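Render this sequence as a predicted structure.
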Amino acid sequence: MLSEDFFTQQTSTLKNCMDILPQEVVFVDNDFTILWMNKSKKKQHSKLRVGMKCFEAFNFTAQCDFCLASQTLKIGSCIKNPVCLMTGRKKNKPRHMNIMITPVNLAKGQADGYIEVVDNVEALYQSYNQLEYLNREYESVIYALSHDLRSPLISIEGFLRKLQKNDQAAKDHALFEHSVSRIHANVEIMNNLVNVLLDTSRIITGKLDLQEVDMEEFIKHIVGDLHMRAGENNAQITMKGSFGIEKCDKIRVQQVFFNLIGNALKHCKSTNELKIEIGSDDTVYWVKDNGPGVAPEIQEKLFEPFTQTTKTDPNSFGMGMNIVYKIIQKHEGDIWLESQEGKGTTVFFTLRADVEE
């Protein structure tokens, strides 16, 4: 059986080395009594104490048979295992770890104890999930890009062939100007599409520039900037509720409001006396209109790339709401929609998720 003398006989240098490791290290005898643990272990498990049984920290009266340490002592060989535990006050926060338990044999026969090393791989796990997410995002964008670029390319090719085949093209100035004009227009569409996709990519991969923002003054500036455009659409933009101080990326959140209000102005042109309300209750923000609403089949996929409620604008690619969704997601917030055909639409969002550590 291991004893505390086993550790006092070791050099202090070895202990110091283990103390600076980010991995959690603990030495336990075959009676499951904790003999020593490094600083990382103490920091992660404040209930553990030298001299206590390891299972006592988890309010068990005896060591469980399914415990990896028990299995290690039974088989007398090292066990490595990935583990996911739910932590936090509500047990709703996953913690991914790699655990390695190695038996210590001072003499032949039964193990005298074990050394447990826990490596926190949560950052690696999150990076892997993020990489998978980015791969899915880029796959969908590439597919949509190839689909949406095909139309202007076909149009450009058609006008070029018309110029090549028409013997009168060189003489017919009007035909030549029309063809060149249409080619330029389609090139502009392609360029705008590429710019939208680049902006989406920057949102996904870039970092937020967080700062304290007075949301009431911030929204007033946005309403002022859109005053002329609202007047052209016979629309009235109002503010409602209480706006406090929010920590956010000011430029990106401005983009959210511009996109949401811009959508209301664009898709509600046929609405007499269009009213757009920007509201807040200090935690939830919303943009509400009294327009025609969004069809149920469109609502389900409104935040997906290249989703359009109407096909009236050739320069619209259906990326506006997807960009809004990604900005809110980047802020760890939520976004949702309430809409009824003929009775208007309200988009709600938050900028900070209520996550308990």
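Summary. Residues 353-357 have pLDDT under 50 and may be disordered. The longest helix spans residues 122-165.
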